[in-house]
Write a structure and sequence with these properties.
GO terms for molecular function: CoA-transferase activity. The protein is of the alpha/beta class. The protein contains 30 helices and 24 strands. A 7-stranded mixed sheet has the order 3-2-1-4-5-6-24, with helices on both faces. The protein has a 7-stranded mixed sheet with strand order 12-18-17-16-13-14-15, with helices on both faces. A 3-stranded antiparallel sheet has the order 7-8-9, sandwiched between helices. The radius of gyration is 26 Å and the shape is globular. It starts with 21 loop residues before the first strand and ends in a 10-residue tail after the last helix.
Length: 815
């Protein structure tokens, strides 16, 4: 493997935006560890308070690698780099005193259920807030800290089922069970959201001089990451976004010499694919079916063409046609992709010597600190017992209330589709003034995927996906292909503290808004660029939809059945990029607050995805283990699978599924009781996880028979009551029926001037300091704020009329 240790991505430690910020880590899973890592990389001092036996992550290897002599696992070494380790047993008085001293001198806590202090009622999130009101306490739990589902057993697998994400975008072939996304992707995504939520609370604490409780629900992060605003879509057009599973074509295809991933996200890309595979006549056929339907209709002919051509030849042609494509990345090959080599992305762990991903974003100036070794268990215990604490700086000001932490922040939002708008939407929901820029000639792509006939009045306003991503924003249209349009953009840049864009790099350069120009217009601006593959390298201008990012990072390789080609998740690549860009933006704002200087952020989508698939590269480099797809099975539970239940679904099909994940021997014993102790389950060899994993096929046959005779509701209620992780594989437009989400007000009804009132998702954490609601206004109509914004920029009424007549601005699509 060819790697570079630093690649010029890291700055001096004193430049890190969180220098002096102290975080106590009381978590024990990937979500909490990844949250803490993102903070540590930005300069925070992270002190992990571990139980005497250590954080369970120290012993983790999903490939089953043997860790000799109590050695720490490679994944732990990646996640805990730069942290301090303190062993503290809350049952010991001296350790409780140490913990309280740590907490008194900290700024924030990351907490999740688990062993050690996190399992002691005296260190619950509520107790921490009561004893240490200055702390920002971020709790990461499956369902949230209160509500009817709080405390119920859940796993990554069952949360994906409850979220609707397993079936949300039609993943998998209709003749088999739907598929979950492998690799604990939801855990990593929750960790990123936890970091963004904690930094948001920190932003508020800078003005209120108080801490707060941040109550993050992993179910809610799964909904935002694995489904495409299905409730707002359904309630806007009165039908689900998608009602059946299908394989995306070409998707992951078999070429003459291996696998290649190629996808069509737009009509133009479908037209180009038709030409590429030698069937231009398909373009003239009935355009009514959706692209996915048309590609499936032609699946046999497309597959035949791919099988006759080599991978490199297909990639060269697809790139020339600007059709999204990528090799199918896995832990063995991804470090050799020419894009990652050109950008020196991968680095070497300073303690373990294995290969690991570089940071999920880059900045100018460099704000992240260079990787440092993970601590040995208890390495810093005596230091914190004996040494004096540096003391917390006195808080200035009087404690106040600030339910909207980004009020007063003006953001120019030059983003489209999902990744970019999801980043800026969070800011809008937290009080920022976000000005979303489209053009009448090229509206935001999410306006165009609602399936509304173009002869219907104002059809472009009827996308629940667009409204789901853009509430609370202002909207203007600018044709920036014109000189007058580019002048509008320059005036907007000068008026905004933050600029976010997610075009391919050449677009920004063509319209003259590169970083040097932005700095001249606004020296203290934070500019966030979100290209698919980065602003340099051989792939920099390649189009990048969610699925091609998943292909290029390893998310696809872990998803699917082992006897078939991998299946693209078709979801997480976008929102994962959005939340990592948000984290980078918040860190850049902190640098701006401290120094008054602007920051360029390069938040490449693929870099963010390579971080949440880090375990693949790490396991392969450290242990030679290639992690592959396993259908709906997983390394943490046995049995784990989807089982078909009795009855027909709401579409009249025998397609009701239940997700089951037995993670402990005690849960297995409880399941056997519910099964009424059948002879096959009494075998002593099934009493251990290892034994059950060896005979998973046999278990599946028996469980499938038992599930098939019972309704979903009966199965879920009986197993959940017995403490077994279980879930209905929910259709995503039914998310609003989940009582836990109703209790937490996760969905809010939003009126709209064109569409019926529809419920819209909010943010996946409840902030004790507010706000009580998030959607202050509906998503903007096309160009609705043209006059107001242009007037603010100094344009007269006559000048605006000239711009309208020239179609530089407008409120009706101009195709």
């Amino acid at each position: 493997m060819t790697v570079n240790r630093t690649a010029g991505r890291y700055g001096p430690p004193e430049s890190s935006p969180l220098t002096g910020y102290v975080v106590v880590d009381l978590s024990s899973g990937i979500a909490g560890a990844y949250c803490a890592k993102l903070l540590a990389d930005a300069g925070a001092r992270v002190v992990a308070a571990e139980p005497p036996e250590g954080n369970p992550l120290r012993g983790r290897s999903v490939s089953g690698a043997i860790l000799e002599n109590g050695a720490d696992g490679a994944l732990f070494q990646f996640l805990a780099g730069g942290a301090h380790s303190v062993v503290a047993d809350p049952a010991v008085a001296a350790d409780r005193e140490l913990l309280d001293r740590l907490l008194t001198n900290a700024d924030a806590v990351v907490w999740s259920p688990g062993p050690g202090a996190a399992g002691d009622p005296g260190y619950s999130p509520a107790a921490l807030r009561e004893r240490h009101p200055h702390l920002v306490v971020t709790a990461i739990t499956p369902f949230g800290l209160d509500g009817p589902w709080t405390g119920r057993p859940a796993t990554e697998f069952t949360l994906q089922a409850w979220s609707g994400g397993i079936v949300g975008l039609g993943r998998g072939a209709p003749d088999r069970a739907p598929l979950y996304i492998g690799g604990d992707a939801g855990e990593w995504f929750a960790g990123a959201y936890a970091a963004a939520a904690l930094l948001t609370a920190r932003q508020r604490a800078l003005t209120t001089a108080t801490g707060e409780l941040v109550d993050l629900s992993m179910l809610e992060t799964q909904i935002l990451g694995l489904s495409y605003y299905p409730v707002s879509f359904y309630e806007t057009v009165n039908r689900p976004f998608r009602t059946r599973r299908r394989l995306s074509r070409p998707g992951v295809a078999t070429a003459a010499d291996g696998l290649i991933a190629v996808g069509c996200g737009t009509a133009q890309q479908w037209f180009d694919l038709c030409v590429m595979v030698g069937h231009p006549e398909w373009i003239e056929e009935d355009p009514t079916p959706a692209i996915t339907e048309r590609t499936n209709e032609k699946a046999a002919e497309i597959a035949e063409w791919f099988a006759a051509h080599k991978v490199d030849e297909i990639r060269e042609l697809a790139t020339a046609f600007r059709i999204p494509n990528s090799p199918v990345a896995d832990g063995a090959n991804v470090t050799e992709f020419d894009q990652h080599l050109a950008r020196d992305f991968f680095t070497v762990n300073p303690r373990g010597g294995f290969v690991q991903p570089g940071p999920p974003f880059r900045t100018l100036p460099a704000l992240l600190r260079e990787p440092t070794p993970a601590p040995r268990l208890g390495e810093h215990t005596e230091h914190y017992r004996s040494a004096g604490f540096p003391g917390r700086p006195a808080r200035t000001g009087i404690a106040t209330s600030n339910p909207l932490p980004f009020r007063g922040l003006r953001v120019l939002d030059m983003t489209t589709f999902w990744a970019g708008p999801s980043c800026t939407h969070f800011l809008a929901m937290q009080g920022a003034e976000v000005i979303h820029v489209e053009s009448a000639q090229r509206p935001d792509g999410t306006r165009l995927i609602a399936g509304v006939p173009i002869d219907e009045d104002r059809w472009w306003e009827k996308s629940g996906i667009f409204t789901g991503l853009n509430t609370g924003k202002r909207g203007i249209t600018v044709d920036f292909r014109t000189a007058a349009g580019r002048e509008i953009l320059r005036r907007l840049v000068a008026s905004c503290e933050v600029i976010v864009e997610n075009y391919t790099p050449r677009v920004i350069e063509q319209i003259g808004l590169d970083w040097e120009t932005v700095r001249r217009l606004r020296p203290d601006a934070v500019m966030v660029r979100m290209p698919g593959f980065g602003i340099d390298g051989p792939w920099r201008d390649n189009p990048a939809f969610a699925y091609v990012i998943e292909d290029a990072s390893g998310l696809t390789a872990r998803t699917g059945y082992p006897d078939q080609n991998p299946v693209e998740p078709y979801s997480l690549g976008d929102p994962n990029a959005g939340v990592h860009a948000l984290i980078a933006l918040l860190l850049a704002l902190e640098h701006r607050r401290r120094t008054g200087a602007g920051v360029l952020v390069e938040a490449a989508m693929v870099d963010a995805a390579l971080n949440i698939t880090a375990e693949q590269v790490i396991e392969y480099s450290a242990y030679g283990a290639l992690l592959e797809r396993t259908g709906n099975r997983g390394p943490h539970a046995a049995p784990q699978n989807l089982y078909r239940a009795a009855g027909l679904d709401e579409f009249g099909r025998p397609d009701n599924w239940v997700a089951l994940a037995v993670t402990t021997d005690e849960q297995w014993a409880a399941l056997v009781e519910i099964l009424e102790q059948p002879v096959w389950a009494a075998d002593p060899g099934l009493r251990t996880v290892a034994g059950r994993r060896k005979r998973h096929d046999e278990i599946d046959v028996h469980l499938a028979s038992w599930f098939a005779d019972r309704e979903v509701g009966e199965i879920v209620s009986r197993l959940w009551a017995a403490g077994i992780p279980v879930a209905e594989v929910l259709q995503p437009h039914r998310q609003g029926e989940i009582p836990q989400l109703h209790h937490r007000n996760f969905f809010e009804a939003v009126p709209h001037p064109v569409n019926p009132s529809a419920r819209h998702s909010t943010v996946p954490a409840r902030f004790s300091a507010g706000p009580g609601s998030y959607h202050r206004s509906p998503a903007p109509l096309l160009g609705q704020d043209n006059h107001a914004v242009l007037t603010e920029l100094g344009y007269s009424a006559d000048e605006i009329s000239v711009l309208e007549r020239a179609e530089v601005v407008g409120g009706t699509p101009r195709f």
